[in-house]
Amino acid sequence: MTLISLSRVVKKYSAGAQDVTALDDVSFDIEPAKMTVVLGPSGSGKSTALNMLGGMDTPTSGTIVAAGEEISSYDDARLTLYRREQVGFVFQHYNLIPNLTAAENVGIGSQYSRDAMSPDDALASVGLAGRERSFPSELSGGQMQRVAIARAIAKRPHLLLCDEPTGALDSETGRAVIALLRSIAGTTQTAVVVVTHNVSVAAVGDATVTLHDGRVQSHVEHQVPISVEEIDW
Ligand SMILES: Nc1ncnc2c1ncn2[C@@H]1O[C@H](COP(=O)(O)OP(=O)(O)OP(=O)(O)O)[C@@H](O)[C@H]1O
């Protein structure tokens, strides 16, 4: 079963007098309960594809269908609801609010959700029980990223989008974060999408979509993904 499908998606930006084609006839599916890695060099269209999946931007042409709804035809108000109810976001630099505790940061991510996990439960699920009252400055990079993941999953999103989630972490901490993201996909119905330019992370996922110059260069399913210990960082 597919959670979200991009079909023949084109995204053009106007940059001064010139148009930039960030996505050029891109089609791929994202499955629930799986981790999909989106790989590609700088400028290949990874963030643009993530923005499309997350309803942060709309295509110039083509369609995006999420859970049976054509979100590419949504107006801003419906896209906001889609993001709020169905999508969790994790960023390279965590984006935590410095003067709020870990639990308060997590609570902010799910304040509009009806069926959210409590911040304490969400933090426990990422291995941070006991750190609820810590401020971001009292946490390591890996712990801050775990708080950010707890914030993203507390509302029980269908889709968890992670843009370079290990980009600011050392290899050991990065492996642990990838292991956590994979276990979230494995233990819930959440579709996890990880954007990276680290080629070795790709084989850890259930599928890898490789972009190049805004086009899908390859889409590979891994029947037996490698373990995080095997990542050659
Ligand atoms: N808002 C925008 N306005 C104009 N051009 C844009 C905009 N956003 C992206 N682009 C262009 O679209 C192309 C794809 O950009 P995108 O950020 O999706 O690539 P990326 O693979 O995520 O790169 P990186 O790994 O460096 O983040 C690039 O040529 C970029 O300059």
Task: Provide a compact summary of the structure.
This protein is of the alpha/beta class. It has helices at 46-53, 76-86, 102-109, 119-125, 141-153, 171-187, 199-202; strands spanning 4-15, 18-30, 35-39, 61-66, 69-70, 87-90, 159-163, 191-196, 207-212, 215-221.
Count of alpha and pi helical runs? 7
**Dominant shape:** globular
Strand content: 25-35%
Helix content estimate: 25-40%
Q: Please give the domain count.
A: 1
Q: What is the name of the CATH superfamily?
A: P-loop containing nucleotide triphosphate hydrolases
From the alpha-carbon coordinates, what is the Rg to the nearest angstrom?
Answer: 17 Å
- Small-molecule binders: adenosine-5'-triphosphate
Return the CATH class: Alpha Beta
Q: Between the first and last Cα atoms, what is the distance in angstroms?
A: 32 Å
Largest sheet: 6 strands, mixed
CATH topology label: Rossmann fold
Structural class: alpha/beta
Number of strands: 10
The residue ranges in which pLDDT falls below 50 over 5 or more consecutive positions are none
CATH architecture assignment name = 3-Layer(aba) Sandwich
